[in-house]
From TrEMBL:
Origin superkingdom: Bacteria
Protein name: GntR family transcriptional regulator/MocR family aminotransferase
InterPro entries per record: Aminotransferase_I/II_large, HTH_trans_reg/aminotransferase, PyrdxlP-dep_Trfase, PyrdxlP-dep_Trfase_major, Tscrpt_reg_HTH_GntR, WH-like_DNA-bd_sf, WH_DNA-bd_sf
Keywords: Aminotransferase, DNA-binding, Pyridoxal phosphate, Transcription, Transcription regulation, Transferase
Amino acid sequence: MLAPAHLCGLFCLGPLMLDDSPLYLGGEAGTKVPSNVSGNTMLENLIKLSEDSELNLQAQLRQQIVTLVAEGLIPNSQRLPSSRRLADSLGISRNTAVLAYQQLIDEGYLVSRERSGIYVSQAVQCGGPRLADGDAKPAVNRLWRQRLAKHVQVDSGFPVPPQWQDYPYPFLEGEFDQSLFPVAEWREASRLSLGVREINDWSRARGDADDPQLIEQIRTKILPRRGISARPDEILITNGAQQGLFLLANLLFDVDTCVAMEEPGYPDFRELVTRAGSELEFLPVDTHGIDISKNSGRSQFIYVTPSHQVPTTVTLSSERRTAMLGQAAQFDQIIIEDDFDSETNFLGNPHPSLKSQDREGRVIYIGSLSKVISAGLRLGFMIAPAELIEALRHERRYLSRFPAANNQRTAAFFLSLGHFDATMRRLHQTFKDRWIALRNALNHYLPRAVYTMESEGGTCCWVQGPAGLQVEELCRQAEMRGILIEPVAHFYGATENHSGCFRLGVSSLPVEKIRPGIAKLAALIRELSGEPCDALDESNPQWFTNAELTRALAGARLLTKTVYGQPLTIDLLADGRMVGHAGFANEEQDEGRWWVADDRFYRQWQTWSYGEAMSFYTVVEQDQVRWYDHDHRFIDSAIMRHQQAKDTSAVQLEP
């Protein structure tokens, strides 16, 4: 048990006694405490031990004593209280205090003098000259402002709030909630990498070489899944995919280089090209990925994110992949394939990588382990011809020599033990559930207000809002309501045609938060969109009531679209059953029931629309059906075709 907070002073309950006189810690050695100094003035609260800390009591005690010594708050050569007195004062076991003291003695912070006690070691440099409060110097003075002015660029990207996890609904791409980290698996791999034999291996200086075990695991475990075969000398380990791009820009780009990239595209890569002084050529992106028909052939390099394009998430079609490789040979171009998100295809299998189809060594492949395990891990890799890898290794030597060897060995164990594959399967299902939940919520709450770019998966959606929506104001107002969404202006390098677009990510919040977050966002979008409300006119003669509505809809087939642009067909059978098919190949199906009551059309799916019963006022004009909610606001519309004979006898007029 810990002592109560008000008893946990600095080592003891009262003033620290050395020679029957209280010592004022923090003053000169041996300074006596004036009679008017209270217990609080004697820093009695400097050491606080907490049962809630992730560190045990012994580690907390060591940590805090080291801090006090380093900051000069315990003067050099001063005797510390005995382990018994320290333990009694803090309400801890004497064994805890003894072990803490002993380790600090072993490490040279404290010394034990026979028949005298424990003292702060004179060899420890405690504290130093301190600035008075008014002497603090500015972080950057005029001297440095002048020198940095032409080198430091203002980051125009989206600033993620530092405390984004405190927001109820953080729809942020690239941020990960900590529940997804494979703690137990990484601990096992880390423990194995810290064995004596392993430490003796990875701690030896190897020049600028990478860990051969990690190279082998990437070569045999990860690359075959992407259809890539590579020799060890064709693989380079990097501090995340970002360092790979940096190395390529440093080595290959200059003022005589032209580089093509997607528009919109990854802003950090655009900045690297600009810093190198190279010319940029922007190729537009549509529903099939980068439009390579716009490739002029002027560029020596093409940067592409084919699996899930940054930022729209669309997947580069197989036809365009083949055409891009043909163009690269025709125009003598090099393709930089950033495949950071290759595994998250939910509507089909991942396409073969461009590198797997490369027969001329024209594709540089960049992958990442950080995207899967943890963004803070900072481990990535590059696949390229051996000559280029050797040049990149030489370039990396002057930047970081090589990524931390212990992290490399831990990652190698993580892969070899099967943890990577297991984590991938778990994340795939988790992200699939979240991504589908996001699409369902958008389809439920904003069926006509927004449109999302077609995608086969990923961890975010690119959303086109209603006309007149000011995204900057939407983001500001949403944040005030606890909702974080991402504007997209920073993804464009030459185009201003991004009005009304924003991104919603799902890697940062659990699935149960998605629906309520989108419901709140939908209400805000309706509030800010500025569009005139398309309200139901009750005097409209086409506003159908019970019997008319039943006759009009029984046996009808309704043709409409989902919010993500796929066709949706609904058959309203005469017996009150309802059958739905969604997708270009009817990939999604559901059944439910429909009925008419209170002059409204009711429908309830088994799983779609959360399986909830919904009612609508309905207007039928020739072959078009329009639905309105209980507030008479327009919700959705469909084209109506009759597929069956109109036998309405079996249709319920009441639920």
